[in-house]
UniProtKB/TrEMBL annotation:
The lineage of its organism: Bacteria, Pseudomonadati, Bacteroidota, Flavobacteriia, Flavobacteriales. The keyword Cell membrane does not apply. GO terms for molecular function: L-threonine 3-dehydrogenase activity. Keywords: Oxidoreductase. InterPro entries: Epimerase_deHydtase, NAD(P)-bd_dom_sf, NAD(P)_epim/dehydratase. This is L-threonine 3-dehydrogenase. It comes from Flavobacterium johnsoniae (strain ATCC 17061 / DSM 2064 / JCM 8514 / BCRC 14874 / CCUG 350202 / NBRC 14942 / NCIMB 11054 / UW101).
């Protein structure tokens, strides 16, 4: 019998693609999507969908029991920029949704959890280039503090209660089908929409701000691969560094210009997200993930730019 999977936060940027891919692999009837909202899309219309408030333990437990869930992918979170504007709610959502699923796993009601962490766990005193797996971590954002704390709790629940929780530190995720929501790296998605609609983009980060990024298909592969890997290969139970590409607004604009020569980028000054971006790494060393469970990215800046422009041209026009 196939395992039963619950995706919490299934209508967000990662959840949308992840749910559709999980349904392809494990069968539509075995993947239950859930979110606090119910948009009119394939995640909702093509398979089981439930409204679940990730902060409501009883509700999460009810649906875990109703569908005899084996694995939970917990994706609900307030991202870096949004979290700065609603820090108490961000802390509540990012921490307590995690505690709910960790506690269900501790009670043996679920067998395995995927929970994403982020490059936001790093801070101003972290080495910026090829940031190592183990290094100084002094996050300066509410989001980063919640992700770092979540990592500590994941490791603690694994060590103390044997909970099988697996995690990766995502960089900025670039996708065309569902929009990102409230992150600092969102510019790298917005830029493609503006390039197609208006051939210009007003960027909220400065030209040389280099950040680690990843195309959505690689992000989905990472989640599914780490969940499928034999448990003894998962040596890190806080969260694995993960890397695919790194670029600045200037570099991505140049790549877009190869396809749309008239494209122009201008830069905003004094946006609060610049301070967040300045505290994050330029690039990430993900050797542990590559060695332990054979992680490999497939997409670089050139591939990703071509796909994004092609797909958005089909959907926007
Ligand atoms: C954000 O910008 O907040 C996220 C992240 C890097 O985790 N995309």
């Amino acid at each position: 019998m196939n395992k039963k999977i619950l995706v919490i936060g299934a209508c967000g940027q990662i959840g949308t693609e992840l749910t559709l891919r999980l349904r392809q692999i494990y069968g539509v009837e075995n993947v239950i999507a859930s979110d606090i909202v119910k948009p009119d899309n394939d995640v909702v219309n093509q398979g089981y969908f439930e409204i679940i408030d990730a902060l409501n333990f009883d509700q999460v437990e009810y649906f875990v029991e109703k569908y005899s869930i084996d694995e939970v992918y917990l994706l609900s979170a307030l991202l870096s920029a949004s979290a700065e504007k609603a820090y108490a709610f961000a802390w509540d959502l990012n921490m307590n949704s995690l505690f709910h699923v960790l506690n269900l796993a501790k009670e043996k009601k679920i067998k395995k959890i995927f929970w994403p962490s982020s490059i936001a766990v790093f801070g101003n005193n972290t080495p910026r280039e090829k940031t190592p797996q183990y290094t100084v971590m002094e996050p300066s954002t509410v989001y980063g503090i919640s992700k770092q704390t979540g990592e500590r709790w994941c490791e603690y629940y694994h060590k103390t209660f044997g909970v099988d929780v697996r995690s990766v530190r995502y960089p900025g995720i670039i996708s065309w089908s569902a929009p990102p929501g409230g992150g600092t790296t969102d510019y790298a998605v917005d830029i493609f929409h503006s390039a197609i609609k208006e051939q210009k983009y007003h960027c909220f980060l400065s030209p040389e701000t280099k950040l680690p990024m990843m195309y959505i298909d690689d992000a989905i592969d990472a989640a599914i691969d780490i969940m499928d890997a034999p448990g003894d290969l998962i040596k890190i139970r806080s969260s694995y560094n993960l890397s695919a590409m790194s670029f600045s607004p200037h570099e991505i604009a140049n790549e877009i210009k190869k396809h749309i020569p008239e494209f122009e980028i201008t830069y905003k000054e004094n946006d609060f997200r610049q301070t967040i971006a300045d505290s994050w790494p330029d690039s990430i060393d993900d050797n542990n993930a590559r060695t332990d469970w054979n992680w490999k990215n497939k997409f670089d800046l050139q591939d990703m730019t071509s796909i994004m422009l092609e797909k958005l041209e089909e959907t926007i026009q």
